[in-house]
Batch of 4 targets.
Target 1
Amino acid sequence: MYKNELQAITKSNRYRSRKLYSDDLADFSSNDYLGFAQNQALFERSVAQVSLYKTHAPKASILVNGYHPIHQEFEDFLIRHNGFEAALVCGSGFLANFSLIEALPRKKDLLILDEEYHASGMVASKTVDAEVLTFAHNDTNHLESLINTHKHNRIIIAVEGIYSMSGDLLNREIFDVADRYNALLIVDEAHSVGILGENLRGVFDLFGITPKDNHIKMGTLGKALGSYGAYILCSHHIAEFLQNRAKAIIYTTAPSLFDIALGYQGLLFILKYREKLKAEIKARQAIVQKSLGMNIEGLICSYPLKEDSNALSVQQHLIDEGFLVGAIRPPTVPKPILRLIPRLGESTEALETLCHLIQKENF
């Protein structure tokens, strides 16, 4: 039925498939930034936490009877340690972003997304009645000019703490623009929580920003926390509105109890060992800078390939050498890149070897 479309995708070198990779490969591809997916102690603590209760599954929507004490305890922890008024757990980062972008902009509002915002937000933006615009990546002048040249009721701005493909850090001045125009500011911290800031809480922590009523933070459990799921931090008012209007919250089964418990244990681990983790993150950033000449703010190294390079062929070459890295192609990115994650789950020695190999091959 879709034979012609699949042929076109294949011809354009954009065909995707699922693969099982050997555990023997040094993994520099995963978003498991801190290596928590390999931490058996976190797994066992999460099992013990869930085992305290009669049920081990949420059973229903969070607004029917799927809300569980594990959800509530995790939300209370997030509120205490992030300084927001309210928290909502969600099934995934995609669902959390979709909830925010689909529900918050109403008719006569203005929704402005960074042009590199995650696909979840871009897809959700197609469903709204508001006027939808994109601004040049991290460009506050362009953002402000769009606000001043378009009519609006409310303004909603959507950005990322660290951008998932480029690894760019959010421009701090965007907070100032949002506050100046009393705009709702959605900050997707999927790739910055556990990586940035004095307490490894992300860009709010890094920039020393006290959350305000117009600030919204989205974090995932499926990256640095080594689990699956997400959360939204916001004001009481916004949380109340979302649980009454956000379809991806209202009409989905509540998040897995085990996954929430596992993410919770990950955050507790970060709180206890943050100084050690920060030192290990800095050590890996220094290796990337020294070996590849690239300064990375987080743990995403977007290594540009030559114009004539085939990303999948380069990836396979590195696999043959014992290393797994991401091969990212258009349309996900404008030009093919290697997405190298200098994660704490692999040794610094392995990272040095990989970086030297990439430099030597000069892909």
Target 2
Amino acid sequence: MNDDEERRPVVPAELRGYLAEVVRRVRAVCGERAVSVAAVGSVALGDYRHGRSDVDVVVVVEPGLPGAALPELAERLAHRRLPCPAAGLELVVYGADAAGRPSGGAGYLLNLNTGPLLTERADLDDTGAAAFWFVVDRSIAHRAGITLWGAPARRVVAEPAPAELFSALRAAVREHADGTGHLADNRVLNGCRAVVFCRTGRWRAKRAAAGEIAAAEPRFGPLLEAAVRSYERPRPEAAALPAAEVRTFLAWAGARVEEAAAAAGG
């Protein structure tokens, strides 16, 4: 049993009623085609921050879901219909065939973003989607997902192949290096998480990953401490971080991902 399997974070109290209702609505809409509902992201990694974190959910369904079901699910879960207590809900629905393959693609049937601090979207076509977000989430689901209902996430969501996972991490670090649309603290902490995964083969919560990098690379300590302090604030109160230092750190993180990929033949 690996470390990810041994860790069993619990669903935060602030989310329990909400997630129970999400499960109820998934089952009501998808019926017997529903296979599994699991929490991933910060909830699964034990670092959910109320007022800052999104709640990330993966749903797996069997083939044959009626065509109207996914738009109906998106409507029933929209923040105006079911107020989200977190910064937002990011819910992804996969077909069981796609979820069960170690794919490097986005592969979703529905990608729903809704909540008080998220731009509303309900995508039913993964064409042109930035696949790396979904590859990383499926890896976390496989290794650490908290099953809220149905089949265990580890059994129905496949771990992406190493080459696909390294490709996703490269793309994620590039996305954060660009910086568009992302808070500076989140850019830095996601870079930490990518490097820690490359070094250890384990997903760590963002703040824990920052601590590991700060201990190993003291020159980045002040930036990482500032990023953690900012991350501990509500999202609208996030601090500005020195742009040049953020770029330097993410360039370093990108180089570490490249090295790990090359060493693994990925």
Target 3
Amino acid sequence: MATDLTTGHEMCRPVIRLAMLSHYFEEHRGGVEIVAGALARALSPLGFEIVWLATDKKAFRDETSNPERRGLPASNIVELTAKIPYPLPFPSAIRSIFAEVRNADVVLVHDALYLTSVAALFASRFYRKPFLVVQHIGIVPYRNLILRSLMAVANRVIAVPVLNRADQIVFISDLTRRYFETLHCPRTPQLIFNGVDTEIFFPPECEADKATARADLGLPPFAPIALFVGRFVEKKGLLHLEHLARERDDVLFVFAGWGDIDPSQWTLPNIRVFRELVGPSLALLYRAADVLLLPSVGEGFPLVIQEALACGLPIVCGADTAAADKEAEPFLTTIAIDVETPKATAAALGAATSRLLESGENGRQSRVARAEFCRSRYSWRASAEHYATLLRGLVAFPKP
């Protein structure tokens, strides 16, 4: 265990060595890995010395910051062929996981389904280290029956056994918690929503700020802008958005992200694509838009929902996504999403978008109300302190 730190005459808590694992680093730009990075940075000043392990093209070790980063060599063949982000770690990566878990006081993994999480479970049991799982996702209802069946089987064969053996489970949404409600965990599973950095994501002060944001991004000053943020993959509802963009040439559809689906290939004049926006530049795009469209399925509570709320943006999303946090539902416009009927879903999405664009939902008062709700509901500081309490409890009392 780490030794005590003393600052002046004040005795601080013992520093805890935390081994944190996710399937990718945040440069991959998926929601899980972005949250992993944000949580690590929020925990660092709370008395945690963190080693963050995630797969990469090659092995590396960066000891220049807290969290310290350790790249695990892995194959990305599954994502390249099946378009599913599921890295396959090499044997040397498994050895690295065991080595880092051996030196840690406690282990935290993001999502039980990944092989890095499975390896971390075996290592934590071998070295008798407490093991916490942050479960982000339940089931993804892919249109492809084979993929949908594989996901269900993988949950039963991999995720559920890992979760049942965890010393503590944290769900990031009520939707995910309900999907896994039959689990048997020695400690009561906790619901902790992801946080959002409201120093970066905040609403425009006035219409002039919105106009400036559009000018900075090279967007037209007066066109209604519908925004999508996330990976360009099937489960995010890109097919629905393509149908809608073809029907609504009066709306400019802006896509921020990357993936195997390329909206710029739809050859539509009302499409703009940004691939490199993160942090402040992404927040600028939220402030430039009129509405966020997120017709995704099979997610917990996407971080982009929270970021858009922090920027005061009206949101259209699926009813399941909104149900992930009942407190947020009054601030969301929901539709039924059917992956088997993309045209019908696009029609519902279009109708909801029209209502928001024609209403007063983009006024200053409405934007401020959403931002204030987000600031009070989704604080990274409060979330990190909750995690810190759980982790300290596991270290102090590793067995219930």
Target 4
Amino acid sequence: MQTVSSTPAVYRPRPRPDASRVLVCLSFCGGGTAPFRRWADVVPDDVELALICYPGRESRFGTPFARDWIALRDDVVGAVRGLAGRPYTLFGHSMGSWLAFETAAQLERLGVARPSALVVSGGVAPHRRGVRGSHIPRTADSDDVLVDWMRTFGQMSAVVANEPELRAIAVELLRADLAVSESYRFTEGTRATVPLRVLYGSGDTEPFDEVERDWKSLADGGFEAFELPGGHFYETDVWAGLPRWCTEPAPGAGRP
């Protein structure tokens, strides 16, 4: 049975309190926990899947959206701190990749247990966001532009697009997350001090070799990067299989 944990920001599709390690997932701009829930069926038996629900959606629908980047990061940090009793890997996709990077850095500043490894997916390196990522929409864009973007990148189904109320909710959510993302400012000197693995789609919007180079420049621990089939959300079977890239040996120990 699926349950919401006592910490509202953490959703465990299949609770495994005796698991020896945890995979913590941070979603993309405008996203929630739903795209990761089926991963509970494929993670190893010794792994518990913990999905972070940002404010303003799903079980936290009544919680106001984060005001800015720092507020969202601190919300995530608070949720992850409650999971730090076991070794854990921190995974983030797209906007979640920057949140994972910044969350790990903030946990280190606070002296809280850092993740065992950091896996970032579908995102340019945070210090290059002002140079790359021109395909990302802006909060000033019209609803139609945002809907077109979500449809193009596979973030909105035809069912949602054709249902006015659901479409409006999706647009509001995306616009709120875009505002948070636009307020993000990379702090020079911030580093990934745990092993870092970068995943990126072969058909995504930036050249893979440049994305790899940019992330590597922020890595003080082990590092490796892999180009996977598909676009921003990869091919369907690739997305379904992403947990193995998060639960296999850390960077430097070989490809899953």
